[in-house]
Amino acid sequence: MLKVLDFLKTPRFLSNAFLFCVGALLLIIGIDFARIEINKLAHKRATEIAHDWSTQLVTNAPFLPRLLSTPRGESKPVRSLGNVRPVSPVLGYRIYGPDGELRVMADAPSPPPDISEPAFVTQITLPLTYDGKKVGTIVSDIDSGSFHEILVDGALKLGILVSMALAFLLFVSHSVRLASRQEALRNANHLMQSDSVTGMPTQPAFLDMLATAHSQEVAQQTTTNLYLLNLDRFARVNERLGNSVGNMLLRLVAERLRLACGKTVVCAHISGDTFGVIADERTGKRLHKTLQQVFLQPFNFGQNVIRLSASIGAATSTAGLYSCDELHRNAELALRAAKTNGGQQLVSYDSDTVAEFREIDRIATFVEDACQNNDFELHYQPVVDARTRKLCSFEALLRLTTADGEKIGPDSFIPVAERIGRIEEIGLWTLREACRTVAGLPKHIGMAVNLSVQQFNSGKLVAEVTKIIEDTRVDPSRIELEVTEGIMIGDTDPVFKQLSDLQALGIKIALDDFGTGYSSLNYLWRFTFDKLKVDQAFIRASDHNPKAYALLSKIVEVGRLLDMSVTAEGIETEDHAKRVADLGCDYSQGYLFGKAIPQTSLASVVISEFAEYIRRQTGGKADVDGAEVASS
Ligand code: C2E
Ligand code: MG
Ligand code: MG
Q: Is 525 helix (H, G, I), strand (E, B) or coil?
């Protein structure tokens, strides 16, 4: 509905509606004018017929002048002049004497009953002359229907011919305008400076061309289609195969794009791995498919065969619906949506994408601010021994509270931080902070920290973790790094290598949220995790679903079989706690044992836990570090 309303407000619609109204008005005036002209012509023709008829009448009835000059007296008008009968299209006539009295009154023979009355009857009054003298007046009834028909028929044919000629003229002018638009864009394309790698126009040139296309779109009430293409994971190609192979690939992509799009479409190399395409109304429609097909076949050169995919953002503006900047921003938003959805797809800009990305932008602003002002906070959730319920470690969980007091959950801001490239910085801050915290806790307590998949991309993770361990002087065996199954997507070798290096430092590696993500078991034998953290969904489902319960028990068995300890997440009830302990889970984590708490509350948890432990050991009151702690 909103789209329809928006469209009704577009300049293109308004100008077309105006043209339509003007056209309709001209048509009404034209029809009225034609009607008057047709009537005039019909009257003229009827007058000619009436004139011929009256001449013929006087010739055939030479006694008529005498009859008219004789006073009528009491007698009735004559009804017939012998053989002189009106013939078609004369329907009848009346003759008046010089004194104005009705003297002759003749009708045409009545039509047979199945013939309808004539549609048009024109009465023509003419003087009746004999030997150059006026002897009376004749009023003839002429059937003018046939002339009307002929004239209307003629007018119709003329109208159709004129309309066809106009339509043809419009088509020709539209085609000429389009051709000139494409020509202008092509010229601009040639004139603009081109990129040395791909030979395509560069970003400034591209933006100029977009502005040209957009101003023509507004002037000519047409459509501009803009596409932004970003090669998926191209940085990895550069890293692994080197920049020269990367450049070669960019050149091949550019060539394919140019070939696929054709001469009338502007293609540009906007930046490193991003291309831009501008197309007009007609070509734009087919490009949706064409652009995606560009990446179907692998790129071959030398001995290399490389498969590439692209995320494509498409945006359209018709008759100035969006400004040039808005059009560009819309395509960028659509491109980001394509990337977020996993790449290798085309996303067209629409209001849903906008809503989604407004929210992402909003969170991104908070993340940026928090990075600058050091506003992130770490909370710590206890992890206990599943059987004895003794506190074993904490999991560090990030918290973000905006200046307005709005709390944004890590499930929302971590993906945004990943997207805006801030996750490495945030991840390192988290690790340093958590290490500092655990260094101040009793030695038997460990600390788990979550790692994002992206933290493995730079290849610097191991060095950075080593530095943090050294700086905070924490025993690495107290640190556990949690990764999710997301690390198994794509090329796993570099990730496994870094995980092994971290293990070599003495750090433990846990596989978090096990069973929810990229659930393939093959990586369990390819890499030796120290711990499996079974996702809370399994615990919850095992409440009522025997299959989930069976799976849970098998997961614990797999853990045992592969020498991994197992943590059950999301333990909320006594029932959960007992169930996972009975199944053989090593650790439990969940609201039953405590939610994540700020650092300031940690000490009291540790002390009371320690007191509880001592109480259990001594079966009553106990002295902890010389202080009397009451059991509670
Ligand atoms: P996670 O690593 O699986 O963390 C456990 C999440 O489950 C936490 O949510 C925790 O509050 C919640 N949880 C724990 N016990 C229970 C329970 O009994 N019931 C329920 N319903 N929930 C429970 P949180 O803090 O919202 O974190 C969500 C996710 O955000 C984390 O899942 C983790 O994947 C991510 N995350 C949190 N902090 C960080 C971080 O510093 N770095 C990275 N990369 N990711 C983080
Ligand atoms: Mg975790
Ligand atoms: Mg988890």
A: helix
Residues 6+ apart with CB under 8 A from 411: none
Which domains, ranges and CATH numbers included, belong to the chain?
11-70+83-107+118-143 (3.30.450), 191-349 (3.30.70.270), 374-595 (3.20.20.450), 597-632 (no CATH)
DSSP assignment letter at 82: T
Rg (CA), the chain: 47
Give the pair of three-digit tokens for residue 215. 């101003």
Amino acid at 212: T
CA dist 559 → 22, 171, 446, 618 (Å): 80, 73, 20, 34
Each residue's pLDDT tens digit, 26-39: 878 888 888 888 88
The amino acid at residue 308 is L
Residues 85-131 have pLDDT tens digits of: 777 788 888 888 888 888 888 876 555 555 555 667 888 898 888 88
How far apart CA 353 and CA 329 sit, in angstroms, is: 12
From the alpha carbon of 484, which atom of ligand 1 is closest?
34
Cα-to-centroid distance, 93 and ligand 2 (Å): 110
Q: Which residues, at least 6 apart from 194, have a Cβ–Cβ distance to it below 8 Å? A: 200, 201, 202, 205
Helices and strands counted in the chain (H then E): 19, 23
Own/partner contacts of 108-116, CB < 8 Å, gap of 24 or more, are 108/141, 109/85
**In 3-state terms, what secondary structure has residue 180?**
helix
CB of 452 within 8 A of CB of 414? yes
Residues 325-339: what's their mean pLDDT? 89
What is the dihedral angle through the alpha carbons of 35, 36, 41, 42, rounded to the nearest 10 degrees?
60
Instruction: List the one residue out of 523, 470, 471, 534 whose CA is nearest residue 492.
Output: 523
Ligand 1 test: best mutation among 383, 395, 569, most atoms within 8 Å of CB? 569
Check: CB of residue 316 under 8 Å from CB of residue 268: no
- If one residue of 431, 450, 468, 543 were mutated to test the ligand 1 pocket, choosing by the most ligand atoms within 8 A of its CB, it would be 450
d(CA 481, CA 504): 13
User: Ligand 1: which of 414, 539, 543 to mutate, judged by most atoms within 8 Å of the beta carbon?
Assistant: 414
Q: Which of 172, 119, 173, 171 is nearest to 146 (CA)?
A: 119
The arithmetic mean of pLDDT across residues 441-456, rounded, is 95
pLDDT reading at 149 higher than 90: no
Residues with CB under 6 A from ligand 1: 381, 397-398, 409-411, 414, 427, 430, 450-452, 482, 512-513, 536, 569-572, 589-591, 596
The residue ranking higher by pLDDT, 292 or 463, is: 463
Q: How far apart are CA 590 and CA 177, in angstroms?
A: 68
Per the CB < 8 A criterion, the answer to whether 606 and 572 are in contact is no
Type of residue at 241: L
Q: Which residue has the tokens 């195969």?
A: 241
Neighbours of 396 (CB within 10 A): 23
Q: Which of 401, 453, 394 is nearest to 424 (CA)?
A: 453
